[in-house]
Amino acid sequence: MENKEVLFDYVLRIADNALILGHRVSELCGHGPSLETDIGLTNIALDLVGHARVLLQYAADVEGKGRTDDDLAFLRDIREFKNVLLVEQPNGNFANTIARQFLFDTFNYHFFAALTNSKDENLVAIAKKSIKEVTYHYRYSAEWVIRLGDGTEESHEKMQSALNEIWDYAGEMFVADEVDKQMLAEGIGVDLNAIKALWEERVTAILKEATLDKPEDGWIQKGGKQGKHTEQMGFVLAEIQWMQRAYPGMEW
Amino acid sequence: MENTIENLEAKFQAKLDAEIKIEPKDWMPDKYRKTLVRQISQHAHSEIVGMLPEGNWITRAPSLRRKIGLLAKVQDEGGHGLYLYSAAETLGTSRDQMFEDLNSGKAKYSSIFNYPTLTWADIGAVGWLVDGAAIMNQVMLTRASYGPYARAMVRICKEESFHQRQGYEITMALAQGSPEQKEMAQDALNRWWWPSLMMFGPSDAESTHSAQSMAWKIKRKSNDELRQSFVDATVPQAEFLGLTLPDKDLKWNEERGHYDYGAIDWDEFWQVVKGGGPCNKDRLKVRNKAYNEGAWVREAAMAHAEKRAERKKNN
Ligand SMILES: [Fe+2]
Ligand SMILES: [Fe+2]
Ligand SMILES: [Fe+2]
Fold it and tell me: Is residue A252 part of a domain?
């Protein structure tokens, strides 16, 4: 792959993680367990879609084919989406939602922090602009893991099974493929091994505080970064893209 | 002066007359308190039930910019709910109690949210008309005699006028768009216009609570006055968009200096109020489900907070 294509792919991965997780969280708007969580999660969805938008704008620039952020969000098909499988998993109950969020936010915080040292000025600017929000998410979901883990017996059990269920999807975030390696070599991308160590440390500490067991590492479910998704993803895209597909080429 | 009931009532009335706000710790007549709890909680319920018809378009919004705008709006509505529940709590009713009254159908919320949002244009129409109508009412309520309610309204009004502009702008994009988009906008306007007029409540002659609320300076304008201001403000906005309000009797009345408008279908209004609107059952079902399924989460948060407090004490 040419440099530009690699960078395009790399930016899409970051953007798609934000877009698809933002979408999942936004499905919950108005359906949460309390007004405070409804507001908190809607705010997180809003931040994530906001990050996705600037990242897709940049991806479109990098690609240089005249596509826009909206073209990339609404007119790509499933194989061209590069988010990790973790973020497309359904919301489930509140513990499932929080487990997914916590594993991702912890990764995302360290990822964005590292991205502020990238050689790519645009990514640095985006990371610096988003880090405050990403930090807030990182704290928010960790606090909920602690509350649910160290809450009632019922919430403890639900939080533990939620972690156990989603755990196989966490590993993909740290599996570096050719794109990751090339971007790292060029000083643009982030060292996923370094992030993994930071992630492990934080996750271990939070789970301990939450009186939860860290699930055993087993299979790593992966493929999203290469556009090989779970069946869930088709329905996610059907919903996100419906208007643009039904009414092509219009301004809204 | 002795605190006889007469004296207390006189003091309360003197405050109202002098336009001094009534505050949570002040003595107030029982009926004043009850009226406020009913009205403020009803208003709070409207904010959170209102999140549903709009929230249902977040995942399908046609552009990222619109998705972000809608998410921000719906988040604001949740915040309005929060301020209003807090204001109602100052009157001695718990939030759980208010939720239970909403979920059981005992408490009401604005009937407008019992209509469905069928197309993207409905999101424009809701912002433009429903938030627009809400503002008419809420600007008045910034001067309500009960302090916490009036102050909550000041914060809310700023955001509502932003919502109204956003809705108008969504509708404008459609009105200036393709023939299909324009048709979508007109159809949404046709469906939302009359329910929006009904938002102000029954005519003054029919309104059970109005007169007392005005005497207590909770309300400052009658339902019909507010409705008229809304019509007068909205007609030129529709004209500017090149859209037609679905009322053949609508015309400028030189003598009154207002627009005349056609008869409102009050049978429909009462049917929806009493539970027979297209979405009443759905809305309550969703609220009940969220509340019931969220019980373990709220319990966990409480249990954890108690454990924390306990540990702090023992340290
Ligand atoms: Fe409102
Ligand atoms: Fe509101
Ligand atoms: Fe609003």
Answer: no
